[in-house]
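As the next step, I wrote out a protein sequence along with its fold in token form, included below for the reader:
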Amino acid sequence: TRLTRHSRIVTAVQTRLAYDVEMLSPPSLKNVTEGLRNNSISMVRCYERNSDFHFELQERIHVTIPDGGDPTCSTCPTNERRACRHIWWVDDQILSTAVPPEARSRFKYQISRNGEAVREAEAEDGETLIFHSWLQEKGLGNLARRAGWWKQDPMDQQDTRLVEQTATHILSAFEPCGVLSKQHGQDNFEILQQESHDGNLDATAEALRVEIDRMRSFIMNHGQKKMSIPLQTRIAGILLYTLEQLVQYAGDIQTNAAVSIPQYSGLSLQDRSLLHKMIDRNSPIVFVLPVLDLLDSKVLYGDMIQERVEVLANGLREGEEPCPAEYIRLLERVVGLVE
């Protein structure tokens, strides 16, 4: 930034926007020059919460553009409604999203002493831009993409971790024992063995239906945006794995053999297979589909998922255990194999 004493114009190093500071007091002028001439200030992230806009700078400095009232800084005192150097820097960054690079040398701007608004210095009747109104009108996400800011609410990080932990817990009912969580996997292994004692698979089927309902409600409550693509891929993969195993071992009903997959080892199959119980033509909600249908198309239409479903569909058609044709068709449709 260069400060010309005669004209009292400050040009920001990072944005090349010019500011007329003629009317500012010496303390405010000091804040302007320290904020705009400092090329080392950078933004860590920005986010919106409760109608206020937050900008986190390096060294954990937080500037807030509130819905009404003066902008605030977490590290600088609010003396006489005077914007500090950090607020000036954030204001300059926001203004840069409203002025194209090719037009920045044409005008000079004046920012209010409290850092709430800006206007063209040489336009007597020029329109005043309120920073909060501009952020609200254009959308923080759109402006962040335009300016190269990283938009992320720190609370979303905590939510994401909670989502992954909860999803892992639910998925442990379907996983190969111990893949996701040794503790949860072992717990479910023992529970399923106990529930399926003496060949009674009704309790096992009901337990898996409950977990499917839990997973479906969980995804609906949190939405795709809080669930990363890798997590959604893991959900799809483990549910398809379970269905693959049910298909593979459905024929054991004839020989009363034990299912050999880790999660169901030791479960004696009598009367009807677990696959038959999980895919019931009379049930309005059939196994796996209600959850898969909620996942991102990037996951469902991926080559790996489509290839697995194609093999699964063939297995369901050709297997010894009859499967409703409608279920197979819906399974293929949800991953984009058929229209």
